[in-house]
Design brief:
9 helices; 227 residues; five-stranded mixed sheet; alpha/beta; Cytidine Deaminase, domain 2
Length: 227
Amino acid sequence: MNSSVSIEQAIGGIHGEEMENRDMNSLSESLKPESKMASVEGEDSSTTLLFMELAMQQAKLALDSLEVPVGCVIVEDGKVIASGKNRTTETRNATRHAEMEAIDVLLEQWQKIGLSESEVAEKFSRCNLYVTCEPCIMCAAALSILGIKEVYYGCANDKFGGCGSILSLHASSSEHLNRGGAPQGKGFKCTGGIMASEAVSLLRSFYEQGNPNAPKPHRPPVHQMSQ
């Protein structure tokens, strides 16, 4: 199983657009921590916050590298088995979101120990993902196809969110995945709004400082525009 190829082929070309190529002010305005509130209570609450804090650490590492600060961890049976951070600028690959990075780490590990496709599916069905921002359409599609058990995220992604903000690919009945020729989405539970303010703060820090790697607009001189 070739990890990156199999995932990108599996999602059938469903890609979320890259944040850094969009209007910074518009995106900053759309990052609302109140968009969805977490409903995690009791004993599970402290555990969820612990893993989300680890995801935040990954996001901070991304920010230090001048990447859009999104980070995640994947947890199986209460243990972190993979982590990821946004690397789209470093790799010059628009698909290298934090979730895809963590997924590929696991696929590579499981391939090395010889797990079958059904065994990989079983492993994913026991895993939870903690990510600082709502997965985009691309990542939500991949997570649904892989059969992740549950996703916890920080702030909503009102531009490209695949877990309720734009599409609801976490729903097992999503018509966007379960139709002719598309891979079958298994769906997953989803809870948002966890440490949302912290997630928004990181993203705003990135956009307020400016993105030196963003493409420069190519506009003709004024005298040419008037001709």
